[in-house]
Write a structure and sequence with these properties.
The structure is a single chain. By secondary structure, the chain is an alpha/beta fold. The protein folds into 2 domains: 11-154 and 202-249, Rossmann fold (3-Layer(aba) Sandwich), CATH 3.40.50; 156-199, no CATH class. It has helices spanning 11-22, 25-30, 118-122, 133-138, 159-164, 172-193, 202-216, 229-239, and strands spanning 68-76, 86-94, 104-109, 139-144, 221-225, 244-249. A 6-stranded mixed beta sheet has the order 1-2-4-3-5-6, with helices on both faces. Helix 8 links the parallel strand 5 (221-225) and strand 6. Helix 7 (202-216) packs across helix 8. The radius of gyration is 19 Å and the shape is globular. Mean pLDDT is 84; it is low at 1-13 and 25-34.
């Protein structure tokens, strides 16, 4: 089950966030940036990100912004074992359109869970679903597909079971069938996805975010979370409060 989903977050919601994030612009510009800190988990300093062209969109999806660039960042499957197996996290960036007045990196996640965060950067200047031009002038927009989702290494589950699960049980028998099928689906995900399936939690994703920050060479990031994405921002703030410039939850 490998899908990339574009989420239509209301443009006016994104527009209102501009004032929140730009309000700190003066201090962000005049305070010298500290050296980028290594990600937590004793993984060591990550290699700088090697940016390249983004994958072509599959119709009917529109083409990404010509300003977008893409890469993969390798992180541990299990952050308690930083030298163990790795998983690739797909990352996209839309560079600030006014580099001389750039504030820093604005990372985002549209929620779901299950939606592509990379699409936020790939389509950052979309006239309908994108961000306010004032925000794009001052920030590098950075999005990523969380582990297990989209163009990162994805969870693999039995789609036949998934399609047969009732979404709204109307009686005890249907509820029992829902419970049974959910258990079967979970077993299929664990079996087909492998070790990654046990490490698709919010804390692991927050640590992935910090690895991306470090690979970008940034001492701090700003973060926008929509819907479930607000949980990831909250988790990052709890784990790395000194590495968060601003947090703007929108739901």
């Amino acid at each position: 089950m490998n899908t990339s989903i574009r989420v239509n977050t209301k443009p006016n919601t994104r527009r209102r966030i501009v004032s929140v994030l730009l309000a700190m612009s003066a201090s962000a510009v005049v305070v010298p940036a500290a050296a980028a800190q290594e990600p937590s988990g004793a993984m060591g300093a990550p290699a700088p990100i090697s940016w390249g062209a983004c994958p072509k969109a599959e119709p009917p999806a529109p083409a990404p912004s010509p300003r977008a660039e893409c890469a993969t960042v390798e992180v541990p499957v299990d952050w308690s074992k930083p030298e163990g197996p790795k998983v690739g996290i797909f990352v996209a960036r839309h560079r600030a359109t006014d580099p001389a007045r750039r504030i820093g990196v604005l990372m985002s996640n549209p929620g779901g869970p299950g939606a592509s965060g990379a699409d936020d950067a790939l389509y950052a200047d979309d006239p309908v679903e994108g961000y306010d031009p004032a925000m794009l002038q001052r920030f590098d927009m950075v999005g990523f597909d969380p582990r297990g989702i989209g163009r990162s290494q994805s969870a693999d589950c039995d789609e036949t079971i998934a399609a047969s699960i009732p979404t709204r049980p109307h009686n005890a028998a249907e509820f029992e069938r829902l419970r049974t099928l959910n258990g079967q689906l979970a077993e299929s995900c664990l079996k087909r996805t492998g070790p990654l399936a046990a490490h698709m939690d919010g804390e692991s994703v927050a640590r992935d975010m910090d690895a991306i920050r470090a690979a970008l060479g940034e001492s701090k990031i700003s973060f926008i979370g929509h819907s479930y994405g607000t949980f990831l921002g909250e988790r990052y703030a709890r784990l790395f409060p000194d590495r968060l410039r601003a947090l703007a939850p929108s739901a």
